[in-house]
Amino acid sequence: MRIAVAGGTGAVGRHTARAARERGHDVVVLSRADGVDVTTGRGLTAALRDADAVVDVTNTTTFFARTSRRFFEAATHHLLAAEQANGVGHHVALSIVGIDDMDASYYAGKVAQERAVRAGQVPYTIARAGQFHEYVGRLLSSQKGPVAVMPTAPMRPVAAREVGEHLVAVAEAGPVGRATDLVGPQDEQLADLARRQLAHEGIRRRVWEVTLPLTYTRGLASGALRGGADRIEARITFDDWLASEDHRPLG
């Protein structure tokens, strides 16, 4: 197959592209560095020529619902339009487990993305996954000082490597509407993961766990990010990931 990976240089995208190549597929990486911009549509139609499937793992870093919605709606609109123009038969969108009742903050964009994919004309699969192991480090790096504040968030985190492999399998299987959720192998608490990563890297920082009365933080605390009963469980635990070459120390 010819598989285009939108966001193919990012945390999940590079693993998706690698896994697709290892399985013998022709891979096209869609990124600004390659002259393609999903937020404007620049270069998309030409880049998707002869593509059989598009895997969308594009991402934005924001806690603002409006900003998140704007990004994911624009990216999805331009991708689907270019796919239609080229006769692409399968659009795969990476999303997050448990976000149905969390239409706020960053997750508002993912909810909007799923809605746009379902309303489009291209056959699709929405593939939800648990939070990535890499997510913990991003939250820690976004805060300065001797204390890191983490929201109460029970979850089943999964390695980005396994998410990438899963997305390639989903692309190969053809459009099904909604794939079985992929979650990590263990129940975890976000604050505990942060403490373990800091300890692993020899960094002396305290971690405070807090729960705020907001739609977003209530959703995190609800346990929805663990996923439901119908799920695929990945293999790589958080501690295995910390000890692997995929783990990058905090900057």
The portion of residues forming beta strands comes to 15-25%
Quaternary structure state of the chains depicted = single chain
Cα-atom radius of gyration: 18 Å
Question: What would the principal axes of the Cα set say about the shape?
Answer: globular
Distance between the termini: 38 Å
Please outline the major beta sheet: 6 strands, parallel
Strand order of the largest sheet: 2-1-3-4-5-8
Q: Count helical runs.
A: 9
Overview of this protein structure:
With 251 residues, this protein is an alpha/beta fold. 38% of the residues lie in helices and 19% in strands. It is built from 9 helices and 12 strands. The chain has helices at residues 13-22, 44-47, 65-86, 105-119, 134-141, 160-173, 190-200, 215-221, 238-242, and strands spanning 2-6, 26-30, 53-56, 91-96, 124-129, 147-151, 154-155, 177-178, 181-183, 188-189, 206-210, 231-233. The strands form 4 sheets. Strands 2-1-3-4-5-8 form a 6-stranded parallel β-sheet, with helices on both faces. A two-stranded parallel ribbon has the order 6-11. Helix 4 links the parallel strand 4 and strand 5 (124-129). Helix 1 (13-22) crosses helix 6 (160-173).
